[in-house]
Amino acid sequence: MIRKWPLLFIIIPLIELYFIIAVGEQIGAFWTVILVLLTAVVGVNLLRFQGMSTLARAQKSMAQGQIPAMEMVEGMALAVAGVLLITPGFITDSIGLLLLIPASRQLIVKFIMRRASVQANLYGGTGGFQQGRPQDQQDLYGKKSDVVKPKVGRTIEGEFKRED
After folding, report:
1. E strands within the chain?
2. Rounded distance between C-alpha atoms, residue 59 and residue 53, angstroms
3. In the chain, how many domains are there?
4. Angle between helices 69-86 and 90-100 (to 10 degrees)
5. Distance of alpha carbon 137 from alpha carbon 116, whole angstroms
6. pLDDT at residue 136, rounded to an integer
7. Are 51 and 85 in contact (CB under 8 A)?
């Protein structure tokens, strides 16, 4: 997956350039530039409004003693939307505007959170803490993995007192 990222940085600008030229041929260069600038300005203003709304919901969740996980991931999605809207082009603007619409953004965020949960469970789900000895396991790509599955039912309860 990581090897594909540099390829995206080459392909996406070429596709954007193609669409900008195609739109420019239809409506003219001046109106194409105006349209690209207009989508950036409208997108940044919508981003500011949505960002404030997400921040208010996060503060409300924290005031109720809850962890604002959904709001934090939505904030990251809004940051990605901002980068996509500032980038000139019609495809990136479309994706950025899609991330600004609350309903579609929440669907995308829920998908990402489910996928991250599956990845965490697949790779041990121990939050970086390993217990026991490494076992020979295979990941999704068939490679050997050092991930240790947590042992279920081995909780030791007790109390402690810190003496400094």
Report:
1. 137-138, 144-145
2. 10
3. 1
4. 160
5. 20
6. 47
7. no
